[in-house]
Structures are given as structure tokens and as C-alpha cells.
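To the team - glutamic acid complex, inputs and output below.
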Amino acid sequence: MTTTRFAPSPTGFLHVGNLRTALFNWVIARKSGGTFILRLDDTDPTRSTVEFADQIKRDMDWLGLMWDRVETQSSRLDRYNEAADELRASGRFYECFETPTELDLKRKKQLNMRKPPVYDRSALTLTDAERDALRAERSGHWRFKLDQERIEWNDGILGDLSIDAASVSDPVLIRGDGQFLYTLASVCDDVDFGITNVVRGSDHVTNTATQIQIIEALVGTVPAFAHHSLLTGPQGEGLSKRLGTLALKDLREQGVEPMALLSHMARLGSSQPLELQQHLADLIDGFDLSSFGSAPTKFDVADLGPLSAKVLHSMGISSVQADLEALEVPGDLAAPFWAMARENIETRADIAALWALCRDGVEPVVDAEDGDFIDQAMKLLPAEPRSDTAWKEWTTAVKAATGRKGKGLFMPLRKALTGMEHGPDMSKLLPLLQNIGGR
Ligand code: GLU
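Output:
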């Protein structure tokens, strides 16, 4: 049984980069009828907030990426303590006392000597007396002792990978102030929750190598790992600085449609072409993790506007039911109104203006030379309720009565009824207009 997790830290807002990770893990779980866990990585009490956690849930809910279970790391500290004890007992955990400045100095020396800046394990050579003396002075942090061998795995996106553990510093798992770091918490959770597949950003590749050893030390089962490429801006520039402006909640406010965003993200960076879907469930079958490439993936937020409009243009009424109800569109008008409206909106927010046009009408716009023509036309307007053919009947009658045709016939009528030179298909709009002539 497949179990995946999406593990954001509630220390900020979710952005498009996180969304890829969330979506991939969600799809993998759903594809096999497995379990998708939302895990809140909130071991840092100074930066994690309930507000961010709530917003993460709202964003996921907006996208329809529903989870089967929520787990919070802050409620599992006892378990992390136990795991730390296990690692101590098996001789894989050791206490270190270097200050950040000392570590920095060591790194600089190594770099000067053209050596990789890997922690030199000098804490392992401390005598008991030295250790006691240091303990009296400051609190130690704890490192996991890597087995210095090659760590190999077959990555679901990157293929066969191997990292020499000797080229990586023994990871710090508990800080001097006692805070459990992400690595220990994450590994414990992955083991305890039976995570079978982990997809995350390629910035985690080195973490994966060390995590594989920690999982093995805790006698857990190593999940299948896959690392997706990171997103860049349209010119290939790093997105990290701009991610703050690509928060999901902001995209939502700007009118981005969930299915536009999700369809785009399910294919961006893959060899498969974009297929705009209307329902999340339709993304599942065609999704293929192995079709994604390792190269950084260009993302242009400007693509989301046109894609959202496209999604709206073919959206079924069930997806806007709540919007139509909020606008109090009467039930019998909902279907014809939506058939007209969806072709004429860029975002959902535009629905309101079209409904206002139908319900309230507008102040007619009539050019001086069209005054008599419009007076004459209004007398010929079919009575309510107007049928689907009302526009055709009306314009045929007006044409016969006035001799006007083409643009000279249609444009003044459109302007008188809608106040605009462009807009909805008049034959779809006319039967919906309830207040011709304006307020
Ligand atoms: N909280 C971690 C992050 O957001 C989770 C990484 C992981 O998937 O293990 O980077």
C-alpha cells in the first residue's frame, strides 16, 4: 500500500514550488488508492505558527488536494527522543561542542587547503574529561555518524544516484538548545508512518543520502525517493527570491483557477504536453513521474492567467454552483446564464459584472445619430420571456423596418443593451436581460 506525505513547515505561505511537491505526492497516493498524509514540520517553535498551518490547509483545500491524515511534528517530540536514544545505544550518535564560529573557521581552513568542508569529527576524539569540561561550559549538539561508504538509490526522476558519505558532514540532528532538527524528525516520521514514496525538491538530494543511513540505523524501511527539479523564472533565474510573491493564496486572490494551476504543474517540466483538465481526478491517470526531467524547470506566472480563462471557458456549471448561488442567480436562469457567461470571463470575479448586466441592465449608450433608430428598435423588442431565437427575430424585424444591416444594425443595439462595443454573444445574452433600458 502506497503512503506518501507532503511535509511543509508552517513557517511561511505555500508557493508554486511547494505545490509541485504536494501535487506529485498526492497523485502518487491517489493513483494506487493509498494514503496521503499532510505532515506539518513544526519543530522550530520560534518560526512555526498556527496561522501558517491553517493557511496551508486552506490552500490545499482550495486546490482539492485533500489529505487522509494530518500529523504535526511538535506533538511527537517523545518519539524523537526515543529515536535519539536508539541511535546513541547503537553508537551512531555523538555529542559535539564546536560553536558556529569554530565550525566556520574549520570550514574556511579546509577550503583554503582545497579540501571539502566536511566536519572533521574531532568531537569523537574528546576524552571523557574534556567532554565533561565542555559540557559544563555549553550545551552540546548531536551528530549522526555516517558510515563512510557510497550511498546509492534509484531515484524516480533522477535515475541511479550515488553519494559518497565521506563527502558529507555528519548531520546535526539535535541542536545545542535541544531542538530536534528536521532530519531526525522527518526520518522518524517516514519510518513510523510507513511512508513508501517520497517526492521532494532536488535541493534535498544530499539529505536523502544521509536519511537513508539514518533510516537503516533505526531499522526502518527506506522509501522510494524521487527528486523533482526546482522551478526557475522564465529567464532561468532563481525563483527563491520571488517565491514570496508566488504564494498560493495570492494566486487565488488574483483569480487563478485551481485546475489551471494543477494541470500546469502536473506537466510542467515533463516530456508530456499540457492537458487542461476540469477535475483533479482526471490528472491522476495521465500522471507519470518518470516523464519529468532533471533540468531546472522554467515557470512563468503570466501563463496562469490565460490558462485560468481557458479552464473557465469550458467549465461545467457544477464547478460554479457556489458562485452563482452567492450572486443569487435564480435556479432556472443558472444554466443559460453560465453558458453565456463562461465564454466572457477571464476570472471568476468577472461573473458578478455579467450577472449585474443581466439583472440590472445598464444605462443605454446611444450615439446621437442612432437615437431614432434605437427608439424604433425598442418598439420591436420581443416581449419577455425571450426565447433563444429572440435576438434573431428582433434584428430581422429591425432590419426590415429600418433598412439597416451589418455593423450599422448590430452595433447600436449592442451598445444600447450592454453599454459596450464588445461582449457576450447577443443571442445568448438577450434572453437573460431582465432590465433593458437601465435603472
Ligand atoms: N519540511 C521539509 C521541507 O519543506 C520537508 C522536506 C521533505 O519532504 O522531507 O523542505
